[in-house]
Write a structure and sequence with these properties.
Blueprint (H helix, E strand, L loop, with lengths): L5 E5 L4 H12 L4 E5 L5 H7 L7 E3 L9 H11 L10 H27 L4 H13 L9 H13 L1 H4 L3 H22 L12 H13 L3 H10 L1 H9 L12 H16 L3 H14 L3 E6 L2 E6 L2 H15 L5 H9 L8
Length: about 325
């Protein structure tokens, strides 16, 4: 069988791998999906710059492991069907939501997966099975428990430790209900076509739906989110992107009641901490004080989004939306 021009090393248990895989499908790009296993680890290590998936090998660009950069590159190389909303305001809001998913919703996913039993043990077994090429090893319990313990130890690094758990759990329920209300009215987050925000957020929710505790909650409280995640496995363009006026009634609450009170507060504080060289960051967000080690990659990502949005503030619709949502102070 001939090898495709695009090769994606990934894992079903990696939201960022799912984000890229779904995007490639949407763009109708032929690619080989290579599930990372012990057997291909040497090849992966030879190509990778960091230890985590995804890793996209493409014909025109250097190998990349940054899902946001990968999507932007694929959009430039394969502009149809478009994943960029038609106007300045909605395209900027999509960038903000993509970063929210990658940097805040991921904390929620990580807590739900690795912060509690039995979800932690079930997830560790999925990881182990994947590493063994889809077959559970015969003597698996010790290795499963080692993975579970190692990932539980990473909770603090991600900012999903016990001290932040109540904040993140409340954030999960709040954003899920707000998103469900929005998706009840729209096929995708910005109307009839998916955007980078859809791919990023759906990928995190796909992982949440793998884990029994959050999956049960979502099935009961956010059925439109569940249906949207299923559709985002292999999304197709439907109608055109919607106008911001049509989106605003359910999109403003998502920004006003969730992003402006959690992620954006933390992201701004984290950016300033990284700029000062502080090792720790503390931010007073909805529900209490959120503390973790300073995240330099997240700071760069937020700074990039802030620069893009700040450069677009001459757009009156964007400026008005951010003001109405209480987010204008984060994008000066």
């Amino acid at each position: 069988m001939p090898m495709s021009d695009y090769r994606l090393f990934g894992a079903d248990t990696s939201p960022y791998s799912q984000k890229v895989r779904s995007f490639l499908r949407y763009k109708n790009v032929d690619f080989d999906w290579i599930s990372r296993t012990r057997e291909n680890e040497e090849e992966f290590q030879a190509l990778a710059q960091v230890a985590t998936v995804p890793l996209l090998i493409s014909p025109e660009r250097p190998a990349s492991q940054d899902s946001t950069a990968i999507l932007a590159g694929l959009e430039a190389d394969h502009p149809e069907p478009s994943a960029v909303p038609d106007d300045v305001a909605t395209s900027m809001l999509a960038l903000i939501l993509e970063d929210y998913a990658d940097e805040w919703l991921n904390k929620i996913m990580f807590l739900e997966r690795w912060g509690q039993k039995p979800d932690r043990e079930d997830a560790a077994l999925r990881v182990l099975t994947q590493l063994y090429g889809g077959k559970r090893p015969r003597a698996y319990k010790k290795a499963r428990d080692q993975i579970a313990d190692r990932m539980a130890d990473r909770l603090k690094l991600v900012g999903a430790q016990a001290g932040n758990a109540d904040i993140l759990k409340a954030s999960f329920e709040r954003v899920s209900k707000l998103l469900d209300a929005h998706l009840k009215e729209h096929l995708y987050m910005f109307g009839g076509c998916p955007s980078a925000a859809d791919f990023a957020m759906a990928a995190q929710y796909q992982q949440l739906l793998m884990d029994k505790s959050p999956a049960a909650w979502l099935a009961e409280h956010a059925p439109f989110v569940v249906a949207w995640v299923e559709n985002m496995q292999d999304p197709k363009p439907g109608a055109p992107f919607a106008s911001l006026a049509d989106l605003a009634p359910t999109l403003i609450p998502l920004f006003a009641e969730e992003l402006s009170r959690t992620y954006l507060v933390w992201a701004k504080a984290n950016s300033k901490a990284a700029e000062r060289g502080d090792r720790e960051v503390s931010a007073v967000v909805e529900g209490g004080t959120f503390e973790q080690s300073t995240q330099t990659y997240a700071a760069r990502a937020y700074d990039s989004v802030r620069k893009a949005v700040g450069g677009a503030l001459e757009d009156e619709a964007l400026k008005s939306f951010l003001k109405d949502a209480g987010c204008n102070k984060f994008f000066g």
